[in-house]
Amino acid sequence: MEPLRGDESSVEPDETTIATRGREVDGVALGTVLGELPRPTVAWSAEGQRVAAGGSAATITADGPDRFDHVRRAGEALFAGRAVESDLPRAARPRLFGGFAFHEGDKDEGESPWDGFPDAQFVLPAVQVVRTDDGSTWVVATATGPSAGTEAEARLDEWVDRVEGLEDTLPEDGPGIERRTFTPDDAGWRRQVEAAVERIRRGTLRKVVLAGALTVDLRDELSVPSVYERLSDTYPDCFRFLVAPEGGGHFFGATPERLISRDGRTVRTEALAGSTGRGDTPEEDEWLASELQDSEKDRHEHDLVVEAIKSQLSPYATSISTGDRTVRRLATVQHLQTPVTAELAEDDHVLSLVEALHPTPAVGGLPPDEALETIKDAEAFDRGWYASPVGWFDAEGDGTFAVAIRSAVATERRVTLFAGNGIVSDSDPDREWDEVQLKYRPVLDALE
Ligand SMILES: C=C(O[C@@H]1C=C(C(=O)O)C=C[C@H]1O)C(=O)O
Questions:
Q1: N or C: which end of the chain has fewer CB within 10 A?
Q2: Which residues pair with 44 in a beta bridge?
Q3: Given 24, 151, 229, 257, which residue is catalytic?
């Protein structure tokens, strides 16, 4: 097939010209491609689109409390005045993929699975393989600089050859698990929940989401692309993501939770909080779902999130509306879910909204500052990028961010999984322990 050419940028070529070139290829296995792509590597699969990307045409990195603002400004500067006109499908337009750390500057002393992960990193990928929602697959190359056009073309040729020559050799089975270590352990978790409940009953804290970490040592070598594919098969309706910065491990997961999507002035988000398990039969499933719908404790936990999201969005919105509270059913767990939509008063960048929303009380708590303090006091591990915003934004300031739960960070033969629960005044430590186990299952099952 003749290459489809994106037009040159409409501005004179200069240091920061962005050129994108792409070509449609016959269906290739994205997981296999993922294993071939250089660092920094990112993958994003959601809402009918799949992207596997590697290398960097531009990277934005930020640390500290201003990380959202810094990334937004750097992103705007990168795109400023450089509309990239292109014949490629919209899914192949230049987008920056990446995410943020949950806390600012929360670094473990010494060795941590998060070594190599800055507080924020976004990459305009040098190479992407994109599967669009109409099922076509594109290899896309992007370059910046004075000779961006010729560079992007050369890169495209190279990668089309490489991608077309790939054999599908991903292992079908997971690596298997040799050893599991919970931080905190069972007893420690109960103590932690009891202490949080006590604090809520005594004072002004209303809800706090406490998490645990589960470190697993693997039997065989880990193929991250294979685990990513397995997650994608089991959780096709979730946001599947992978971020592997240069010099770091692999952070990946399959999360059901949208933090925010901005498309022009229309914004979509949701409250996802309140959980129960899956039944062994459809009847048991239904029973559990209706018990969840009727549970005062879960409704309270959920409604706090709805109210907080509405008030966090209100300074930006001319209108906000919420849909019905329903039950979202996933392979191992069911949640209460309320969709929220809003119309923006101005063209606020998606990253401004990310900053306003993160962390929602679905992963932080209420009041936010007291909850974050409680989390830092209680949790004996670094959350790193767990439960934080991961996703993409484009030149228009549109974008989609998910909340990076049901996730893990992998280094060599060791994977650290994270899972948390909302604790309120009538939380029961035993139930919370069982619930948190359900939330490890997506990644755990993919590794077993
Ligand atoms: C924090 C997590 O999940 C969050 C907490 C939930 C809850 O407490 O019921 C439900 C969904 C998520 O918003 C996690 O999976 O790690």
A1: N
A2: 51, 241
A3: 257
pLDDT given at position 109: 64
- The per-residue pLDDT for 372 is 96
Query: How far apart (Å, rounded) are the C-alpha atoms in residues 337 and 302?
Result: 8
Sign of the CA dihedral with 62 first, then 68, 69, and 75 last:
positive
Please name the residue whose Cα sits nearest to atom 1 of ligand 1. 420
> What's residue 169's pLDDT?
85
Ligand 1 nearest atom to the CA of residue 403, by list position: 13
| Domains of the chain listed by start with CATH number | 18-164 (no CATH), 177-447 (3.60.120.10)
**Ligand 1, residues 102, 235, 272: which to mutate, most atoms within 8 A of Cβ?**
272
Please give the C-alpha separations between residue 31 and each of 17, 35, 93, 189, 227, in angstroms, as whole numbers: 31, 7, 21, 36, 9
Which of 207, 229, 432, 435 is catalytic? The answer is: 207
Q: Is there a catalytic annotation at residue 207?
A: yes
The pTM for the full model equals 0.95
Q: Residue 425: what are its φ and ψ, rounded to 5°?
A: -65, -30
8 residue type, one letter: E
CA 322 to chain centre: 23
Give the phi and the psi of residue 313 in degrees, each rounded to 5. -85, -25
Task: In whole angstroms, give the CA distance from residue 426 to residue 55.
Answer: 48
Q: Tokens in use for 434?
A: 């069982």
Query: What whole-number distance in Å separates Cα of residue 74 and Cα of residue 401?
Result: 18
Does residue 209 line the site of ligand 1, with CB under 6 A? Answer: yes
Place of tokens 């109960």: 190
Residue from 439, 440, 441, 444 whose mutation best tests the ligand 1 pocket (most atoms within 8 A of CB):
439
pLDDT of residue 83: 62
The answer to whether 257 is a known catalytic residue is yes
52 within 8 A of 250, measured Cβ to Cβ = no
Instruction: Say what the pLDDT of residue 16 is.
Output: 63
74 CA from centroid of ligand 1 (Å): 32
Q: What is the pLDDT of residue 293?
A: 97
Tell me the average pLDDT of the chain.
93
Tens-place pLDDT, residues 220-278: 999 999 999 999 999 999 999 999 999 999 999 999 999 999 999 999 999 999 999 99
Residues of the chain below pLDDT 70: 1-16, 83, 85, 106-109
- What is the Å distance from ligand 1's center to 327 Cα? 14
Please report where in the chains the tokens 């009891």 appear, as a residue: 194
